[in-house]
């Protein structure tokens, strides 16, 4: 199970599971099936509306048919990735999506670059090179990803209680940080994820950076604690003030 650690512009380390060549090929096959279904529906609409036995022999109907057929299919990937936040229908079914190498959402320009090089990657014979490129790349990138600075990752399964910021707090617990309410649910979730990565990799570098930022908000009372202790206490205090009766 290949994973990638991405450092955001705020020096927070995020961990993702990479989507391998198999996932990406399967999502591509699903998207191809959707495109074929669209082509079939286009043909049926022309046949039903125009009552033609063969749309290709009707005067003036062929250019219109080809426009309605090939432009949406040609723009299929880029349009869905832009409007579905890095996913096509095939990717959504496989629970994978496109992200930037800093963990952020790609911009329209990034999607355009990926789409332009997809034409090269999907040409006969060159698609084999694209598969090889994904397989040997440390970040599972095809040519378009390398150019755009993106990769494709798996999306986490539906969150369980353990995946949330909720944490059981003892009845007699006494919070340490009075300024904890200055943090949002999103902040606490980011801190929780950073702690989980630290516990798996035993690398304090990134939680040290995060703890330094937290100290600036909490003040002197946190300075004697270790980085991990500060973050763990912050999560517990947040739960005490927000979710305990």
Q: What is the makeup of the main sheet?
A: 4 strands, antiparallel
Structural class: alpha+beta
Gyration radius from CA atoms, angstroms: 25 Å
Order of helices and strands: EEHHHHEHHHEHHH
How many domains comprise the coordinates? 2
Q: Which stretches are low in confidence, meaning pLDDT under 50 for 5 or more residues running?
A: none
Task: Note down, in words, how this protein is organized.
The chain is α+β, with helices and mostly antiparallel strands and 245 residues long. The protein folds into two domains: 152 residues, no CATH class; 83 residues, no CATH class. It is 56% helix and 9% strand. It contains ten helices and four strands, in the order ββααααβαααβααα. The chain has a four-stranded antiparallel beta sheet. Strand 1 and strand 2 form a beta hairpin. The chain is elongated, with a radius of gyration of 25 Å. The relative contact order is 0.12. The mean pLDDT is 80.
List the topology elements.
Blueprint: E1 3-7, E2 13-18, H1 21-50, H2 61-74, H3 76-83, H4 89-94, E3 96-100, H5 108-121, H6 126-136, H7 143-148, E4 150-154, H8 185-201, H9 205-218, H10 227-243
Antiparallel strand pairs: 1-2, 2-4, 3-4
């Amino acid at each position: 199970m290949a994973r990638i650690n991405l450092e955001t512009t705020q020096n927070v380390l995020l961990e993702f599971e990479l989507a391998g060549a198999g996932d990406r090929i399967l999502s591509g096959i699903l998207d191809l099936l959707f495109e074929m279904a669209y082509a079939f529906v286009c043909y049926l609409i022309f046949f039903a509306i125009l009552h033609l036995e063969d749309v290709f022999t009707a005067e003036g109907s062929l250019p219109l048919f080809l426009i309605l057929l090939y432009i949406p299919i040609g723009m299929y990937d880029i349009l869905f990735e832009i409007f579905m936040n890095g996913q096509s229908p095939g990717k959504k079914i496989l629970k994978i999506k496109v992200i930037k190498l800093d963990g952020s959402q790609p911009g329209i320009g990034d999607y355009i670059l990926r789409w332009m090089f997809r034409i090269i990657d999907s040409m006969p014979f060159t698609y084999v090179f694209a598969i090889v490129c994904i397989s040997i790349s440390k970040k599972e990138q095809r040519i378009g990803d390398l150019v755009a600075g993106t990769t494709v990752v798996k999306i986490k399964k539906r969150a369980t209680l353990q995946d949330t910021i909720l944490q059981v707090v003892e009845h007699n617990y006494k919070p340490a940080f009075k300024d904890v309410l200055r943090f949002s649910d999103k902040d606490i979730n980011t801190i929780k994820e950073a702690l989980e990565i630290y516990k798996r990799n035993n690398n304090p570098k990134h939680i040290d950076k995060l703890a330094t930022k937290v100290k600036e908000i909490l003040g002197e009372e946190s300075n004697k604690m270790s980085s991990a202790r500060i973050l763990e206490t912050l999560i517990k205090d947040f739960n005490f003030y927000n979710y305990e009766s």
